[in-house]
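In this supplementary section we document a worked example of the pipeline. Step one takes a protein sequence of length 278 as its only input; no multiple sequence alignment statistics are reported here. Step two produces a three-dimensional model, which step three serialises into structure tokens for compact storage. The input and output of this example are shown verbatim.
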Amino acid sequence: MYGMTPWVKRLLIANVVMFIISSTSPGLYRELAFWPWLRTGPETLVPGILLRPWTAVTYMFLHADLTHLLFNMIGLFFFGPRLEHHLTGRDFLKLYFLAGLGGAVFSFFFGPGNPVVGASGAVYGVLLGFAMIWPRERIWIWMILPVEAWLLATVLIAGSLWSGLSGSSSGIAHFAHLGGLAFGFAYLRFRTWRQGAGKREFQRKLEAGTGGGSVARAPLVGDRIAVQRWQAIDVEGLHELNREEVIHLLDKVKTVGIKGLTQSERQFLDRIATANGL
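The serialised model returned by step three reads:
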């Protein structure tokens, strides 16, 4: 169980504070809600984003009632901390706000003309991220029914898609949910590709530096000393890609031993250690 993380805590506080403020100010509520279309004349409709561009973000911090707020904050509270810990705060925020923006985009193109409020799109993006990273994690619905994360995400997607296409008039912005899921998925896939691209580029440079061929490993230091040197690397000061790779390789050494490392993996750790002055 992960403790409360910084950005999840701030988002929870911001949503609660905005709910209190907007509940006492109907005018502010209307100004901050996302309106897909706004009427500027008897027969003239203009995209709301053109007249009130800030609402693509501010609508995420408004809620129709206490129940609406409660359900969204419960989702953020349970799924957010572990995801933020895994992604880091910066990438978690990108996921959250891009998913929320996706909710506004889908509401504009596919939803009716009603105003949209709520953090549901952003929270659906968080839930999807959780399900993509830990698909087999069991989630207890109403503290009774165990459901694996991938299945819960699938049910939510199918339910939102069905409700949106069938024209459900429940007052729920189903297309905002779908937008959050779509943008959240796109961002996480892009993030995975970006990380893979960085590793591929590093491998290309490594192979170029060794002439592209295999190099006999010279036992400059004993395996025990090498491991001690690698373990002394200050991982917190590394770039995200290098940090994750170093942690992964050190875990690999603990699990299967130094013999389980490839030549390029040993070279990678040696280079990082040298850059750390070790």
